[in-house]
Amino acid sequence: MNISLDQLKKLREETLAGVSDCRTALEDAGGDFEKAKKLIQKRGIEKASKKEGKETNEGVVESYVHANGKVGVLVELTCETDFVARNDEFKKLSHEICLQVASMNPKNVTELLKSPYIRDGKYSIGDLVKMTIAKVGENITISRFSRLSL
């Protein structure tokens, strides 16, 4: 099946999935965009659920200070290996979580995971974490965070 570059690009933007996952989903769905979108979500959740429970002893402590200097955030994001901790997808996730905490001020990790993603309300932070787990192939957990404000 011949998949157009525009379809592939659009699916990648909407699902945040990798290029090969998008291509496979479009091929499996016979070019049907909506079916491919559902396949990616289902497969991402399946991949993430297989990783649950694995120890996460590596990771990063990401910081963010808002431009006005009145809000600061520290997030401890952990993964299974230091290789993934240095991965761009993992770093991007840690930064996005910092922005989320700065803007939404959640009370705890559970509330943070349930909160709608500030850049795209269709997804929660939990969904964003699961999509990143599917991309990098390792379990990821938000261990803790701290938000300071004047």
Topology:
Blueprint: H1 5-15, H2 19-28, H3 33-51, E1 58-65, E2 71-79, H4 82-85, H5 88-104, H6 109-114, H7 125-136, E3 140-149
Antiparallel strand pairs: 1-2, 2-3
Helix pairs in contact: 1-2, 1-3, 2-3, 3-7, 5-7
Structure commentary:
By secondary structure, this protein is α+β, with helices and mostly antiparallel strands. It folds into two domains: 47 residues, Helicase, Ruva Protein, domain 3, CATH 1.10.8; 92 residues, 2-Layer Sandwich (Tetrahydropterin Synthase, Chain A). The mean pLDDT is 88. Belongs to the EF-Ts family. It is found in: Cytoplasm. Keywords: Cytoplasm, Elongation factor, Protein biosynthesis.
**Through-space gap between termini:** 57 Å
Side-by-side strand order of the widest sheet = 1-2-3
**Secondary-structure element string:** HHHEEHHHHE
* Domain unit count: 2
What average pLDDT do the residues reach? 88
CATH homologous superfamily title of the largest domain: Elongation factor Ts, dimerisation domain
| Class derived from helix and strand content | alpha+beta
CATH architecture of the largest domain: 2-Layer Sandwich
| Portion of residues within helices | 40-55%
- CA radius of gyration is 16 Å
What is the CATH top level name of the largest domain? Alpha Beta
Tell me the major beta sheet.
3 strands, antiparallel
